[in-house]
From TrEMBL, chain A:
It comes from the Archaea. Residues 209-290 form the DR2241 4Fe-4S iron-sulfur cluster binding domain. It comes from Halohasta litorea. Pfam families: DR2241, DUF7348, Fer4_23. Residues 98-207 form the DR2241 stabilising domain. This is DR2241 family protein. Coiled coil: none annotated. Residues 371-383 have a biased composition (Acidic residues). InterPro entries: DR2241_Fer4, DR2241_middle, DUF7348. Residues 352-383 are annotated as: Disordered.
From TrEMBL, chain B:
One of its GO terms (molecular function) is metal ion binding. It comes from the Archaea. This is CbiX/SirB N-terminal domain-containing protein. InterPro entries: CbiX-like, Sirohydro_Cobaltochel/CbiX. One of its GO terms (biological process) is cobalamin biosynthetic process.
Amino acid sequence: MSVVEPTLSETQLAAFREQLADGVIDHDGLAADYDADENAYHIETPDRQTTVSADGLETVPAEQAAYITNWYFYTQQVGTEIKQAFCQWLEQSDERPVPDRYAALESGIEREWGQLEITTTVSTDGTRHYEIRHVDDSDAEASALTAHTDPFDARDIGTLDADDRYRPLRTAPSLKQGWIFPELSANGVYDAVEAFYPATVVNWYREGRGELDIDHWQDEQDRQSGIYNLITVLPDEAVDWAAAACCDDSQCLKRREWELSEDEPLDADGGDGVFPCRGPCSMVVAAGREWAKLEREDSQTYEFELTPTEKEQLEAIIDAVADDELDEIREADIGNGANRYRVRYLREKRFDEDGNLSGTPTHPDAHDEGPGDDDHDEEADQN
Amino acid sequence: MQSLVIVAHGSHLNPDSATPTHTHADTIRATGAFDEVRTGFWKEEPSLREVLRTARGDDIYVVPLFISEGYFTERVIPRELRLEGWDPSLWESDGISADTATLVASDIDKEVHYCGPVGTHEAMTDVLIRRGESVTGDPSVGDGFGFAVVGHGTERNENSAKAIEYHTERIRETGRFDEVKALYMDEEPEVDDVTEHFETEDIIVVPLFIADGFHTQEDIPEDMGLTDDYRNGYDVPATVEGHRIWYGGAVGTEELTADVVLERAADAGADIGNAIERVRQRTKPTTGAAGD
Ligand code: SF4
């Protein structure tokens, strides 16, 4: 039995009557119809069947009233099918019947969407309330967080990371902490989530219905024009490296569903995100263009003189940069190959005055300048 | 139900690139003229490819927040939005007269109204003038002032210069400023020599650009001699060779640009009530003008 004691308002009863005057209700465990001959309503919920007279609707048992408030909320207060599906997911509606769900909603049902923790609660009339905060602020006192009411504030919160660096990829796991949306409506929670992670809800919804349209890498290649044409020359194996580099869960919270082509899967792991990625994003396409340029170069054999530890040190430096661990290396941790003093020492010892490792020139014949940087002009593009 | 979708370039590098798009979307959202206002970007999210699926209206108006007709408005946007049967000739444009075309977007299997860019709409002239008012803090600025509209030039896109000329001529026709000239970054007459092109002591300089970035914040101020190093900022007005230069930055950041977005949608048939009037009121500069 629910702890929340639902009460049916006049508005809710009027909507219920109006709906049944036109037809039946079959929603989330509630079945109801109106019998004009008897001027009575038949109401059926999983554990109960009642018939009440037209003017006795207020007296339906609390458990059934809960179902009616639930019907009212979802059909009259939540805008679209997509929002309904999302709000139902937020309260795990497929796991509990309405009375149990209301009991759970009383203390709040929490779900994670990327780095968002979304908590749903319910009031006695069935209206849901939503709170959003950063997952890592889960235990923080709400009063210690900056409160926001406008869902579109989410856009600004998501623009810069905690170090004020721009986040061009909104689904990168670098959302900053310290904020809270304490009270959002169903429409508000949808708008805020959309602003944090654009188009993720609609793509998740399409996926749930088996309708997610996927643009694989080769589809993307075929479509590109202008400067992005270059990605057409990126070798297939490089696409795998690119996906492993960019789409890994440590870099992007979307679950990559695109492959090389429909029947050529990539080896790279697509990740475990709740929401899917349906095609290479503009960051990956732009990076792919860069890599396509780089892949036009041939490998060369170089000879370097390094101690075994120095070779391992180079590997440690690459790992530290790739895994974004530089900030964690302590100043005096000289044992770590990527420690700044260690790296400066290596540079002193192994670079010549032109910055060549082991004095080995990059281009022994000095003609080839490597792939030039023909970066285009973003600002001019829009003007 | 009506949806407005503003599409823009965005950037991977510059967080300010999308700011005008968001600001204008907020302004229009506040008028309530549309049931929803969505934004989509070439370089940011949601992508142009996915923006239409975030809109749920029966009548969807897509307005490109771009300055001129060209590669983006004619090829990239229609392709990414999946506008079936798109052809630039549907706009019947001479390079600055694109208005609207109605096509089915296969992503959502619905018709959308694809509008011409904001930069070539006649209402953009008012925004340029408004920027002149806001940068000088004088709602009746004009007498004794020159006005320079700045663009890239024709090197990248012939239509870009057409848009500049068009608004320059329209500002001139108002008779409000003593002199009105079009200047360019990469061709004659060059913005570098701004003071040589004007007799007036006071010159308002406004780039016909959508967003602030490298060109409007670094190149142009340095090229005009407002500052030796953009990082040190510059004065408004700054004195250069005996002229006072009132440099306004990208016109697209002027709040009144929201009005042009509305005009585009209204031209395409959107029912927006008196939203245009309200935006004009709302975005009036509150900076106390001298003598007010
Ligand atoms: S392409 Fe990769 S990095 Fe880009 S959004 Fe999809 S999963 Fe994330």
